[in-house]
Amino acid sequence: MRTGKVRLLWGAAATALAAGFGGQVSAQETEGGFTPLGRLVLGAGTEKVAIDTPQAVTVLEQEDIDREQATTVGELFDTVPGVETGGSGRLLGEAFNIRGIGNTEQTASQSRIIVTVDGAPKFFEQYRTGSFFGDPALYKRVEILRGPASSTLYGSGAIGGVINFTTKDASDFLAPGETGALRFRAGYGSNGNAWRGGLIYAARPDENAELLFALNRGTSDDVEDGDGTTLDGTAYERWSGLVKGTFHFGQNDDQSLRLSWSRTDGDLADTVVAQTGGPAVAGFGTADIRSLDDTVTLSWDHQGAGNPWLDLDVTLSWSNTEVEKRDFSAGFLCAPGIFLVLCDNDAAYETLSLKAENTIEFGSGAWENYLTFGTQLSQQERTASSSLGALPFHPQGTDSRAAIYAQGEFIWNDRLTLIPGVRLEKAFQDPGAAAEAAGARATEELAVSPKLAVMYELNDAWSVFGSLARTERLPTLDEHYSSEGEVQRGPLFFGPRTPSLNLDPEIATTVEIGLAYEGFDVLNEGDSLQIKATAFNNSIRDLIATTPRATGPTPGQAAVPYFSNIDSARIWGLELEGAYDAEGWFANAAYSLVRSEDESTGETLTDTPADTLSLTLGTRLPERDLRLGWRGNWANSITTASAETNGDSYLTHDLFLDWTPDSGPLEGMTVNLAVENVTDATYRPNLQLDNAPGRTFKIALTKEFDW
Description:
Radius of gyration: 25 Å
Distance between the termini: 40 Å
Strand content: over 45%
Largest sheet: 22 strands, antiparallel, barrel
Shape: globular
Number of strands: 37
Number of helices: 7
């Protein structure tokens, strides 16, 4: 193994070690040489360094999450190329977009991106509502795997990619020999008068058991944009908590059992119904909205005590996300049909999943080989109802899936890496009573997702990589079973929509090619420079979209299926990540360019993000325990098929300072200071429907005690 790779692996391991010891190793001691591209990737197969992974992947660690002081998880992705959020920055208004895939205004859009928390699949869809509501304070790690190559391990249909969230562990705050730790964190944001606080208790009652309890609370008034205009509905109150236990046993402690329960409880009193923002905010009025997001996982890990044929992970998980809406200001309009959205209503997705995965190691001579294979069973129950009964455009039903998959990693002479994989997934869907009465029936479908990824190291500095992946996204419950009656709007009658029982899967074929560079002692002794560029081309056919309704001046217009396979598209682009790290200073860059074309119209797809560049420049003053710097975020102008996602260019500036005393009475404390949008610019990311917040001063204080 060449020297550069050894240093990257050591950097990644030391960074993880520092996080695991609850900051016992200072940032000044660990950060030099440990760039984002040098971090370990855990979710793409066997552990590997990001720059040596033949796939576009970004890892956010605990330090990144703490420094962002984020209200929603979307705020964590400013420095991640190819990842945006659509909708709005409201607590219940965000949806993910990866490489132009994903929005908040299209039913089942988020099924093209797989999201997990501690391995538990997460999904939510509701009209004018976002898709993921977890509190960033619960997580210590986020992995973003871009592109459909991740379908092998996580599920068919990951056309955009996969986002994995990992909750905190007791070992993150306990160094060897310590039995307990307390961590207090408090924060304030000037825009909206936002307050946040958190408490973590970690304990090691004996050498084989670890326990963690965490509680967080946050409140905010409505925030303002750069012009001083209030962004209605951004006020919130939120509680979140985490209980986790980890127990080690077996030969040489080669087995572990982990049980965790995380909950995020959001309370939005008299808030806007259209949480995703835009012109609809005024039209839908206000309501009291409460969200509950629960994730429970029980996992067993058996590393086999040196047995190369045994590295087993089994995870049983339960996820439930529900939103309750009451006291609508426009509730007097509550009526059957489209106005059911203004009736008191509840919507929930409950998912039970079992996943078993084993990795074996074998090889001889110059070959080092791994084979990961597994199976996954899941059942998703979708419920939705209003004070006037079932919601036909949010149909109830059950989605049951069974999958088997295998992925190989064949490494020759530590130079050539081949990663083939395939997943077979069978889906069984059953409609609820109301959907069945509207004509829905049970369906069965099969998805096949093969791939091949290759990486070759040309020399000690340069590597090339590429992949070919194909995935099939099966229709969701909404797409199969939604229906709607005939409606009159002005002088026209719009015909009814029936359940869509003959949909074909969406098929995405993606080609990626890339180039990676890693150099050491580039400008000065001990420095490092890593650059990774990825170009991609994604051809999607049989896109599922809403069927145009028959219209006319008289009632009795013809019925059409609610959804049809009516479109094909191509999305292509380039992502660039770069990082330079030296003893006294550091720099990071993330650039994303996405282009798209609706092949039937030639127009740019609505979900296409603008070109973006994030550039960070910073310095360290070890003698003063300081880290400080500047970050600029630039976006180009863009015109899409929808005026709502057109956008003007903008440039914003952020300043940050982190102080971590490593001696004296303040040892164990961290101060994070930030000024976001320093120039108080008024701007709107093109996939969001509202302006972004104006200038915001943020401060967070963290103090740890251990024994």
